[in-house]
Write a structure and sequence with these properties.
The protein has about 220 residues and is of the alpha+beta class. About 30% of the residues lie in helices and about 15% in strands.
C-alpha cells in the first residue's frame, strides 16, 4: 500500500495579498484582488467611500441615536448588554478612594468628604455618583455614541462642603452656534477645535432641541 503526501507550495502558504496583471488603456499594470470590482462583488462595495468617519456619520447620526435608544428601551438583550457594561465599568458602589498620606486623620477626613460628596454630586440632585457614572460612561455611549458632562459649582453648598457638581447633558444639545458658518474642520457638531485638532470650546444649547419644556440649567 502506498500513500501520497501532498505538499503546499510556499506561494500558497504566504499571507501576502495576491497580485495580478490587468490590461488597461495605458498598458498592463499590477493590481490586488481586494481592489478588483467584478459582477460578484460590485453590490458589496457599492457604498465604500473615502470620507472620514465624522463626515460619514453626520448625516445619519440622529437616526442612529433614535434607533439605538429604541432598541435599548424595547429589546431585553440590548438593555441587558448596556446594564452589564455599566456594572463592569462602575459597579454598584462606584469608586472609593483609599488615601495613604501618612496622616491617618487627614486620610479619614478626605475619604469621608468624598463619600458625602458622591451622594450629592449630581447638580440636579437626582443621582449619586455611581448612578451618574453608569449613565454617562456606559448607558449614554450605548444609546447616543457619546456622553457630555459639565462641571458646575453649586452656590448653595456650605462653607465646608465640596461645591463641585456634575451635570449630565443630552448629546443632542451639542450644536453649532446659529450665527456660525457651515460645519468645517475647526467647528462641527458643537465642538470647536484648535489648529492641532484638540477641542477648545463646546457649544451647548440651553434646552433640548426636541424637548417640550425649557429645562436649562445654564446661567
Amino acid at each position: 500500500m502506498t500513500t501520497t503526501t501532498k505538499t503546499r507550495s510556499k506561494q500558497t502558504l504566504s499571507n501576502k495579498p495576491r497580485m495580478r496583471i490587468r490590461n488597461s488603456n495605458n498598458g498592463q499594470r499590477a493590481y490586488f484582488d481586494a481592489a478588483a470590482t467584478t459582477r460578484l462583488n460590485q453590490n458589496h462595495w457599492a457604498f465604500a467611500t473615502e470620507h472620514d468617519i465624522n463626515t460619514l456619520i453626520r448625516g445619519d447620526l440622529a437616526t442612529l441615536r433614535k434607533r439605538a435608544r429604541f432598541e435599548i428601551l424595547n429589546n431585553g438583550y440590548g438593555a441587558g448588554i448596556a446594564d452589564t457594561l455599566a456594572f463592569d465599568i462602575v459597579g454598584d458602589h462606584g469608586p472609593r478612594p483609599q488615601l495613604d498620606s501618612g496622616n491617618a486623620d487627614f486620610d479619614a477626613e478626605c475619604e469621608e468628604r468624598f463619600a458625602v460628596w458622591s451622594q450629592h454630586c449630581d447638580y440636579t440632585g437626582l443621582m449619586g455618583l455611581p448612578e451618574m457614572l453608569q449613565m454617562q460612561f456606559a448607558l449614554q455611549p450605548c444609546e447616543a455614541g457619546e456622553s457630555v458632562t459639565v462641571f458646575k459649582r453649586d452656590r448653595r453648598a456650605g462653607n465646608y462642603e465640596v461645591s463641585l457638581r456634575l451635570l449630565a447633558v443630552e448629546t443632542e444639545r451639542l450644536d453649532n452656534p446659529m450665527d456660525s458658518a457651515a460645519p468645517s474642520k475647526r467647528l462641527h457638531d458643537g465642538i470647536e477645535f484648535d489648529a492641532a485638532g484638540r477641542p477648545e470650546a463646546y457649544y451647548i444649547l440651553k434646552d433640548h432641541p426636541n424637548g417640550s419644556y425649557a429645562d436649562s440649567l445654564f446661567d
